[in-house]
Amino acid sequence: MQAEPLLPIFLKLQSRPVLVVGGGVVATGKVERLVSAGAHVTVVAPKICKAITKLPVTIEKREFVESDLDGVWFVVAAAPSEVNQLVSVAGGARRVFVNAVDDPDNASAYAASVISRGPIMLAISTSGLAPALSALLREALDAMLPVDLEVWLEESVRERSVWQQHGVPMEDRRERLLARLNEIYQKRHSRGEAR
């Protein structure tokens, strides 16, 4: 089975209008993630579950219409497949990426299984082919990652500043960072703190 080639990317949705078509339990999780990313979310669906009504979103309790996509940066279709298809066609005509939940035929964007540790985010995708596998891989990787990734990030930021001040070439930075992170890991391991 071969999937289309994809470009993995993270979107800055802070203060940008985003549409969610669908008002059920699955849509709720998507709305929560979009709200936490700072998006201005509008939810359109004939029925809206109670959890969504408690979120800071705009609610339109009705069927989807194409003009709902006017001015949005991104859309999540978490509705029945026939509605997702309408959203997909309308999104394509407006050059708006559509994440059709568990409906890869109607999607131009796929949500990833995500591991978040502060500002560090790792995303896993199966190109929409097997979302359950993405979730299992996320759980496995999360269990393997060091608990102090934020310490690693802080050290990486400090090191980067030093390298920029001293003109350290890009090709030398990875090896230097690895050496520094190994020092941190060895220190923690000798104290019995490493995972």
Describe this protein with a few key phrases.
195 residues, two-stranded antiparallel sheet, single chain, alpha/beta, 5-stranded parallel β-sheet, 6 helices
Describe the structure.
- The radius of gyration is 21 Å and the shape is elongated.
- The protein contains six helices and seven strands, in the order E-H-E-H-E-E-H-E-E-E-H-H-H.
- Helix 5 runs antiparallel to helix 6 (170-190).
- The model has no long low-confidence stretch (mean pLDDT 92).
- It is 43% helix and 16% strand.
- The strands form two sheets. A five-stranded parallel sheet has the order 3-2-1-4-5, sandwiched between helices. The protein has a two-stranded antiparallel ribbon with strand order 6-7.
- It starts with 16 loop residues before the first strand and ends in a 5-residue tail after the last helix.
- By secondary structure, it is an alpha/beta fold.
- Strand 4 (74-77), helix 3 (81-94) and strand 5 (97-100) form a beta-alpha-beta unit.
